[in-house]
Amino acid sequence: MEEQPQKIKNIAKNTSYLTIALIIQKVISFFYFILLARNLGPESLGKYYFAISFTTIFAIFIDLGLANYLIRETAKIKEKSSKLLSNILGLKILTSLLSVLAVFLFINIFGVYDSISRQLVYISSICMVLDSFTLTFFSTVRGFHNLKYESFSSVIFQLIVLIVGWIFLSLGFDLRIIMLSLVSASAFNFIYSLIILRFKIKMPVKISFNFSFFRNILILSLPFALYGIFQRLYTYLDSVLLSFFSGDYYVGVYQIAFKIIYALQFLPMAFVASLYPAMSYYWLNNKEQLKIAFKRSMDYLFMISIPISVAIFLLAGDIIMIFKDGYEGAVWPLKISILALVFIFVNFPVGSLLNACDRQSKNTRNMLICLISAVILNILLIPKFNAMGAAAVVLISNLLMFVLGIIECKKIISYKFRDNLLSLFKIIFASLLMGVLIFLLKNYLNIFLLCFIAMILYFLILLIIGGFKKADIAYIIYSFKRGKNKI
User: Fold this and answer.
1) Buried b / exposed e along 227-240 (16+ C-beta atoms within 10 A)
2) What is the pLDDT of residues 13-35, one digit of tens each?
3) H-helix or E-strand spanning residue 18
4) Selection from 289, 299, 406, 428 nearest residue 347 by Cα
5) Are 121 and 103 in contact (CB under 8 A)?
6) What is the pLDDT of residues 475-487, one digit of tens each?
7) Which of 323, 301, 345, 364 is nearest to 65 (CA)?
8) Where are the domains of the chain?
9) In this structure, are residues 58 and 124 in contact, taking their beta carbons and an 8 Å threshold?
10) CA-based Rg of the chain, rounded to a whole angstrom?
11) What are the phi and psi torsion angles at 328 (to 5°)?
12) Alpha-helical runs (H) found in 246-286
């Protein structure tokens, strides 16, 4: 009986490690992005991130959902983890060869990409393979309920990219050499994860080729594979299509908006990482409390996302200047796509509710619908509106994902969106008043000082009109503790 409290304590520590690492990683990654943007210019930045986006799509065809399957099965029966790992490594050698071949074929088949773009893709494909095997090693470690080493590794990875990349930029090296900073970080992660698995977890690392076993693994991991494929295409295909239809300059300016939104996602990710286990517990034991937890999580993420969206929309021109002259074309793509931030944030608790209540297939279906819609809209809008067209698709597709998710949520709990309307009106009112302050003072105050004053004003107004209470702070703390205790 003493083993269970210790296990709970370890998982709670793992949650803390991962959350802290996620925040640090996002900060370092965004800082490096600013460094790249200021030194490369839109076109070179576009080439760099096109190569990453292109290979990231193919990376899922190496893994095919095997990481999630490996974590689940290792956690269930640790005695079988060695056999499972050896066969997955054998399978990944084959899928890596096929995926690299596919990358080479697709980057050359259209004949529209110059030699530098193709070479960047070749270099990035090295990272694609190394990162996939690193994912397999850490998935086994995660199956043993240990996230400390993976959390540490993710931060070191970003630090290596930042330091090596900064040195290469300072020395004025070619874009292809700068891409090698990613290869060096991926190589470190690969070696480090292998050492941790072999000497800390004491797992023998062997390679097996059992084709009947391969078939069984692929069938069982298919649900994970489908969702992963849909998600990767949904996230990265817009940059590839933008490069194909409009050119590298527009990929560069579009990446400004993409990276800002991506960097801000640690807020809902950290919140939901702790709330998700509580939702799973409430689904089995207290459905009324599940409804309350879901409603409040929506309120809190509206409370965070709406003022951020208003502030960035109004300050988009000033924010773009941080990146350097030449990125003026990123202002309207940022203004359009930042409106999607609200839906991106609240889609986290929506998706978590569906997963917690065994409706993950609905998430996969919704992702497929949004992917198909996004591809069609990107093909229609990008040739005419370039980066603004891609930004508009981000807004439309995330709104669609939210609507589809809410429809499913209403089938699980007796939830109505009007339950959030009163809080939403108060949040919008406070955000608009904050927006007026920003509009009046943005030409007179430093952007960082202005944002700090605007944030104080927003929460004061919200407190005065009853949109935020002391009890809400207590509930957020309770949700985090509840999540850790029920994982």
Assistant:
1) bbbbbbbbbbbbbb
2) 555 667 778 788 888 998 999 99
3) helix 3-40
4) 406
5) yes
6) 555 544 544 444 3
7) 364
8) 1-220, 223-487
9) no
10) 23
11) -60, -30
12) 248-264, 266-285
